[in-house]
Design goal:
By secondary structure, the protein is an alpha/beta fold. The protein has one domain: 3-Layer(aba) Sandwich (Rossmann fold). The chain contains six helices and nine strands, in the order βαβαβαβαβαββββα. 43% of the residues are buried.
Amino acid sequence: MSSAPRIVITVADPETQSRPDVSIRKNRLYADAIRRHGGEPILIDAATPLAERAAGLTAMDGLLLAGGTDMDPSRYGQPNQGSRDLEPERDALETEAWNVAAKQATPVFGICRGFQVINVLMGGKLLQDVAGHAGPAWGDGPALRHPLRLAPGSRLARILSPSNVGGGVVSVNSYHHQAVGRSDLADGLVAAGWSPSPVGDIVEAVESRDPGRLVLAVQCHPERTESTPPAFDRVWRVFVDACRGPASNRTVRAALPR
């Protein structure tokens, strides 16, 4: 039996957050989801000592870019037009982690902020403020939900609904005020899902054009199982399975649930 894949999770430093206890709970949910499917989570934040950070990134079999605050818009060549609570140290951490993962062909999964970070680091941009998409903060009331329309034939559609690869619609939670518009999508990504918004349909799920490496991201928070369809548990399983074994042997064998 192979050892558990080591999956680095880039998270917010609780000590820099307005509600450290909530931040710790949020970070724990990501780790729990990885453990639930047989992975070994390695949490890294901007305050993690450099030697510990380097060791984790060197040893990682997978990378999870977790949720959090907004990315600095200067990273995608725009002035600040609604971005808030910027954390340049985390931007730097996740840029480093992404570059290591790219060099090693490591599978990557992005959630909320992580979805946006992947798009930016692959050359895309963001809509900096979309009204009506944030909803109550986690722990402050029921999650705002909206439909996610899956792209027919996409990897995400095949994972969520193996018997209906033609697409379909699922209801997902919504904790974000930034988004990826159709014209903002990075060239190396394809849209796997869209949601309606006041500015028209926005991209809320992406996957890599490269069929040989798993890069998948969603704008919703699938680690919050109380407001996520059960089918999303298969996304976690697919991601952890993709991280098993040496990088040279990783393929899209995990593109479909077993």
